[in-house]
Backbone:
């Protein structure tokens, strides 16, 4: 049970890091370009792009844990 919880917590932390990086990139692009919508596009590309790559690589979305150990 504890290893499942730790695995889910780890994936949550990784996705949280990706979210923080995407927000940072979106703000930087928005300030650099002067157009807020480009920042939103950059956020979406970074967050969803990396999120999809992580999911396809086998990292589960943090949705809880089970007692399947």
Residues:
């Amino acid at each position: 049970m504890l290893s499942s919880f730790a695995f889910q917590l780890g994936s949550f932390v990784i996705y949280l890091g990706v979210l923080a990086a995407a927000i940072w990139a979106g703000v930087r692009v928005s300030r650099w370009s002067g157009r807020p919508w480009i920042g939103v596009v950059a956020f979406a590309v970074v967050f969803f792009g990396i999120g999809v790559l992580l999911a396809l690589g086998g990292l589960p979305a943090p949705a809880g844990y089970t007692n399947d150990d």
The mean pLDDT is 85. DSSP finds two helices and no strands in the chain.
